[in-house]
Fold this protein.
Amino acid sequence: MVVSQAGGVLLVETIRKGGPDRAIPAASAPWRKARAVHDPGKVLLDVALALALGGDCLADVGMLRAEPAVLGPVAADPTVSRSIDTLASGGDRALTAIRTARAEVREHVRTLAGQAAPDADGQVTADLDGVLVIAHSEKQDAAATWKKTFGHHRLVGFVDHGRGGSGEPVAGLLRRRDVYT
C-alpha cells in the first residue's frame, strides 16, 4: 500500500470494528439487484474510504482496487456509478435507510467506548478560529490583509472533548480576507 494510503488500513479496521460494513449493506439491501456481485452499501463505503484517502470523485475508488488483500474486492468504475445511481433513485427512502444505519453504528460505537467516549461527560465544544496565514507569493485566493501583509484568512474548526479537550481539527478553509470583512 502506498504511504499516502497507509491510513486506509486503520479506516478499514475501524469500519470492521464499528459495524458500518454490516449496517450500511443491510440498509441498502432493497436496492441490490438479484444477481449483483457488488453490494451497493459496500460500494458506498468504498467511495467514502476513497474520499477519506484524498479522492475527489467516484473514479478514485480505483486506488482501492490496487490493494484487494487489504481492502477487499472493489467494484469497477461503471458498477460504482450504477450503484450510486440506484441508491440516488431510491430518494428519501434510501437516504433515510442509510441515515438510520449510520445512527445505529454511532450508538454501537458509543456503547463500545463507554466512559472513554468523547461525549461521555456530556460536553463537546466546537471552536471556530480565524487566523491569518502569510503567503510570500501570489497563491490562489490570497489577498492583502489588514496587517499590511498578503495571504489567507484561514478558518479552522476544532472539536474539544470535555475539560481535557484534545483540540482535534475537523475542518479547514483557506479564504480570501477581503471577501469576509
Remarks:
- The mean pLDDT is 81.
- Residues 124-180 form one domain.
